[in-house]
């Protein structure tokens, strides 16, 4: 497990192995979520990169009546 140090300006550096495995590039934005006392960094993706992401998804699911519009 990689370890980082928080600087005096509350900054961290993501280890190279983490950046490479997630494909994080210089200047890329990350979303920060706090969940159950943990921090999650989620790479932001432009909308044009997500085009077709849900293609082929099964939309035939049963929903409760209150979930319908």
From TrEMBL:
<dbReference type="InterPro" id="IPR007159">
    <property type="entry name" value="SpoVT-AbrB_dom"/>
</dbReference>
<dbReference type="InterPro" id="IPR037914">
    <property type="entry name" value="SpoVT-AbrB_sf"/>
</dbReference>
<keyword id="KW-0238">DNA-binding</keyword>
<feature type="domain" description="SpoVT-AbrB">
    <location>
        <begin position="1"/>
        <end position="46"/>
    </location>
</feature>
<dbReference type="InterPro" id="IPR052975">
    <property type="entry name" value="Repressor-like_regulatory"/>
</dbReference>
<dbReference type="Pfam" id="PF04014">
    <property type="entry name" value="MazE_antitoxin"/>
</dbReference>
<protein>
    <submittedName>
        <fullName>AbrB family looped-hinge helix DNA binding protein</fullName>
    </submittedName>
</protein>
């Amino acid at each position: 497990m990689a370890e980082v140090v928080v600087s005096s300006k509350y900054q961290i550096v993501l280890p190279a192995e983490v950046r490479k495995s997630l494909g994080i590039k210089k200047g890329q934005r990350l979303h920060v979520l706090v969940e159950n006392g943990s921090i999650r960094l989620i790479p932001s993706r432009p909308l044009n990169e997500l085009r077709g992401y849900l293609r082929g998804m099964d939309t035939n699911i049963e929903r409760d009546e209150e979930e319908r519009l």
